[in-house]
Amino acid sequence: MSAPSPRRRAARVREGAREDGDGPTEAQQGSGRPPFRHLQPVVGVAAAYALAALLWAIVGDPLPGGRWLAVHLFTLGTITNLIVVMTDHFSRTITRVPGDERRGWRVLTLNVGVLLVVLGLPNGWTIAFALGATVATVAVMWLYVALRRMRRRALGPRFGYVVRAYERACGAFLHGAILGALLGIGVLPGDWYGGVRLAHLAANVLGWAGLVLLATVVFFGPTLMRTRIAPHAERLAVPALRHGATALTVSVVGLVLLGAPGIVGGIGRGVAVLGLAGYAAATVAVCGPVLQVARRAVRSPQAAMIAAACTWFPIAVVLGTAAVAVGHAPVIDAIGLLLLAGVLGQAIVATVTYLLPMVTGPGPGARSAQRATLDTWARSRVAAFNAGVAALTAAVALRGTALGAGWLAPAGWALLGGALAVTLLVAVTAIVRGRLAATTAPQRAT
């Protein structure tokens, strides 16, 4: 049997199908086995963290841990779990190397650390918090070693630069974890707290999550939109991912120095702005081609949400750069919310709903029924989601000003929460409909 052509091989990579059998092979597609069923446990855990984060975000300070816990339930619980499993999966696909078969233990280690962090800090258990941060970091560094080993064993994969970007993201997590531990333990002087907090957010949101999103959307964004990669996408993405990661590291150093007295603090602000500007240029270079192919994409809620996330991402980083330059704290907080909800949250919803039929669908007929169900009220859900994100971002940015309308935040939560609730209902309906389609298909055949 002849080897597949380079064009066919690249197409299979974009579809997420591994040539060594880890992806949805034709035999799996025709059987009752969901081709991505190994993702089921982690997707369930990530969804549970996301629901808890939404509850804590809406209720706010009356609950233990307040908004801090909401952010970390989402970033550590939801985002980090999905990154750890999806980067491993895509790297296996890209490199065609089996990888580390102990990935289940890696996920378990990560969640032990996450639970210690989210339980330790709100309850004042400093040792548990520090231990949890260490354990979670060990899990991510374990992932880094596995990714690096796969990339080095691969024979010149076309998308090898994507795996390299994943490795850089793991390095950003390490920096963010160290800074977060210093913040949580309480060893920083008051003047340094604000700058280190911003550096912690930049390393985790723009580095750990942002670099993974930028690297993945190059090839998986067009796949999710059911279209082709733009001809110039990779030519722009390769240097953008490399220089963007370097620029982010520069910005983190500059943000840490904001707490320094005198001229050093001013230099730190300038360095941070330059680094963030470089990262913003990288987001434009990567997201631009994705938005270009979105014009010819097959209409679906997933395609619309990825396009919206790729629109919000450069806008958020550019506005964040300007906010750091002038030192406007409310705008910086608003940009953080925009990145978490409008960019990362939206990309996660799009990806999970796209993969849902391949994670839970027991057969081709069931998966077709699920995809049709997932398109229910698509435009309304996407519009409500993004309107809610815009309203919440404006509410935080205008807080304490004459323009800060009190109705913006409640309206934003109503729109965003409503869109997510309907999406959850549609997803559950799709799972049930897929099961019913699988059970009725044999009866019709007889």
UniProtKB/TrEMBL annotation:
The entry's keywords: Membrane, Transmembrane, Transmembrane helix
Highest taxon of the lineage: Bacteria
Biased composition (Basic and acidic residues): 12-21
Keyword flag Membrane: yes
Residues annotated as transmembrane: 39-59, 65-84, 104-121, 127-147, 168-189, 201-224, 245-264, 270-291, 303-329, 335-361, 382-405, 411-432
Biased composition (Basic residues): 1-11
Region span, Disordered: 1-36
Name of this protein: Uncharacterized protein
The organism of origin for this protein: Egibacter rhizosphaerae
Taxonomic placement: Bacteria, Bacillati, Actinomycetota, Nitriliruptoria, Egibacterales
